Amino acid sequence: MPLSLLNVIYCTVFLKTFLFTISGGEFCEGYTNEEGVYHSGFQCPLSWEDGSETEEVYCCGTATLKFCCDEPTNGFDSKE
Asked: What pTM was computed for the model?
């Protein structure tokens, strides 16, 4: 019986991790800032609450500074 419980726990952790991974917003690729320091890529949340509205979240910034934002017009342009 303890083995079954352990299997259930492992499956639950796996499913939560999997669902969290696929439910994220845009992924910001890694970048090197103006000082030459590399920053690993990161996952933006799928959305965030802004008062009474739920807003989509995008990867924004430039080739040397990336961040998550809610304005698609500020989205990161890989051509920069």
From this structure: 0.59
The per-residue pLDDT for range 16-68, each reduced to its tens digit, is 444 444 557 899 999 999 999 999 999 999 888 766 677 889 999 999 999 99
Is residue 25 within 8 A of residue 58, CB to CB? The reply is yes
Report the first-to-last Cα separation within the chain, whole angstroms.
Answer: 58
- The DSSP symbol for 75 reads B
Q: SS3 for 41?
A: coil
Cβ count near 52 (within 10 Å): 5
